[in-house]
Design goal:
Elements (H helix, E strand, L loop, with lengths): L4 H6 L15 H5 L5 E7 L4 E3 L2 H4 L2 H19 L5 H16 L2 E2 L6 E2 L4 H7 L5 E15 L2 E17 L4 E11 L10 H30 L2
Helix pairs in contact: 5-7
Length: 216
């Protein structure tokens, strides 16, 4: 059974929840100067560690891959790229559009509810919501010894005073499409999953690039 990188991301706990690409309008952009921005924290979805053996069992295999992935994230201390993406984009908004970044809210948003995010970011003019949509490693189709890392994130810029979504978009990092070389499963995991961390760092940079060019 062949499972693609996007399929694995869709099978994560958040799944392939669609979000429209809505660039920040010129009018909204001009209103940012002198306003405050809060970067909202989000809980991470499960990491899908899909081996060729697990992939043969479809949904049941994804369940096993979820357990293995979450254990790997904890033991190897793999950091969700969403915070790094949010930090870099908030700094970009500050440098280019004159917003001031307020202290990050301590509460985590548990859902995509705009009302929940607005409550958490109360006191700021805008909320930047960046959440990991899916993260995983998986084998390359029928090349059972070849593995790639995949990542996807979603972004929204929300006006806290009106609860209006001013900009939104989604980014996808596909290591294979980025012409990254496949590696073995052992190589993925060696040195506390150093390669996975390297790929997620590349994914973070790619998402910042995509969001900067298409949304913000």
């Amino acid at each position: 059974m062949k499972i693609t990188a996007i399929t694995i991301l869709c099978l994560s706990l958040i799944g392939c929840a669609g979000i429209p690409t809505q660039p920040l309008s010129n009018d909204a952009m001009s209103n940012l100067k002198g306003k405050s921005l809060a970067l909202v924290q989000r809980n991470s979805p499960s990491f899908i560690a899909m081996t060729s053996g697990k992939g043969m069992f479809a949904v049941a295999g994804v369940g096993a891959a979820t357990v293995a992935g979450n254990k790997l994230v904890e033991e190897a201390e793999i950091v969700d790229p969403a915070k790094s993406i949010g930090d870099k984009l908030s700094q970009k908004l500050a440098a280019q559009h004159g917003v001031s970044i307020v202290k990050q809210p301590s509460a985590f948003a548990n859902s995509d509810s705009v009302n929940e995010i607005v409550q958490i970011a109360a006191g700021a003019d805008y909320a930047l919501d960046v959440v990991t949509n899916g993260w995983s490693y998986m084998y390359d189709g029928f090349k059972f010894s070849d593995y790639f890392v995949g990542y996807s994130a979603r972004l929204r810029l929300i006006d806290v005073n009106t609860s209006k979504v001013l900009a939104s978009g989604m980014c996808i990092y596909d290591a294979k499409k980025a012409s990254r070389s496949a590696v073995s499963h052992d190589f993925l995991l060696k040195n506390d999953a150093a390669y996975i961390k390297q790929e997620l760092s590349a994914a973070s940079d790619e998402c910042v690039k995509q969001f900067s060019s298409t949304v913000l």
